[in-house]
Amino acid sequence: xxxxxxxxxVDLRAQYDAIRDDVRAAMDQVLERGDFILGGSVTAFEDxxxxxxxxxxxxGLDSGLSGIELGLRALGIGPGDEVVTAANSFIASALPLTxxxxxxxxxxxDPVSWNLDVEQLETVITPRTKAILPVxxxxxxxxxxxxRAVAERHGLIVFEDACQAHGARYRGEPAGSLGHGAAFxxxxxxxxxxxxxxGAFVSDDEDAVERVRMLRNYGSxxxxxxxxxxxxxxxDTLQAAVLLVKLTHLDAWNDARRRHAAxxxxxxxxxxxxxxxxxxxxxxxxxxxxxxxxxxxxxREHLAHQGVATGIHYPVPIHLQPAYRSLGYRxxxxxxxxxxxxxxxxxxxxxxxxxxxxxxxxxVVRSFQPARSSAASMGD
Length: 380
Ligand SMILES: *Cc1c(COP(=O)(O)O)cnc(C)c1O
Prior knowledge:
The protein has 380 residues and is of the alpha/beta class. The protein contains 12 helices and 14 strands. The strands form 4 sheets. A 7-stranded mixed beta sheet has the order 1-9-8-5-4-2-3, sandwiched between helices. Helix 1 packs across helix 8. Bound molecules: pyridoxal-5'-phosphate (PLP).
């Protein structure tokens, strides 16, 4: 919380202050070595992150979006294929499918977990379906046993969008290890964030990993020998050095996020807001703490007036984005996702969030006089 009682949505400065000396020393070593492109810290981070996610390999990339795109391409997804994903995600879950010439096929959100509704998977599978792309939304793993059962029945690839779920677990297994491959984003505000854009692909599939390594680097294994029409999607050595330092703090930061979420749960229990459902299947890492209100816009304005910053993740579901008009979806196709888009509100959440800031947010929520009842009943 700031001195004037305002609460920011995230506070990257607070995290920097906590790791300043280590991260500066690590960056300085890169500057001294000058190995800026695919340098030693990239390999070191890839090894550490593969271990962290319970995978044989990690490949450092320039973004989470590249992780999805190059990973799926390396696993054989291409023109004409259909890939099933959630209507209520960030658009970067779907865009890479479009780049590959594949078609995003969307399913609605589950009204309780807010992750993709696994009941709908079977209803959208066609002979062209090649993969399921579950999103571990807000840091809670999707219902992976159900996803994997459907995938096995139909011979589909399972690819995790783990861009919000660094360190999350599903029945003890780490996010990233729950399918054939997974993508992570290290966008600065993610649970593990770089000082700019960065991402990774993780997998046990040696051939796919080798292809992603080539695709990120002009399609070459050996300099000036180009086996594939690749791209430049490499993780910067400087970012890898930052991520290596931050990875050692990730579990503690996720623990702090869980404590903050539990405190919000307690303080907001009797406010009539829809709170995140318990996630008994695993360890939620609360990338975001999202509540529901049927008077969301007024509540958001009230919070803003009192200096509490909030976000909406996301205000427009993928099927109603202008960029995806060509998919032919219409309002009403995914009623749960559409209702969530109108009701969700992300409260301040970051590891360094002070206890008194959580109290302040709850007090301000409590002082809100809704125009209508804000009792949220969906999924009850
Ligand atoms: C952040 C994010 C991405 C994309 O990651 P970038 O690193 O920004 O490209 C993809 N999917 C989800 C669910 C995300 O939250």
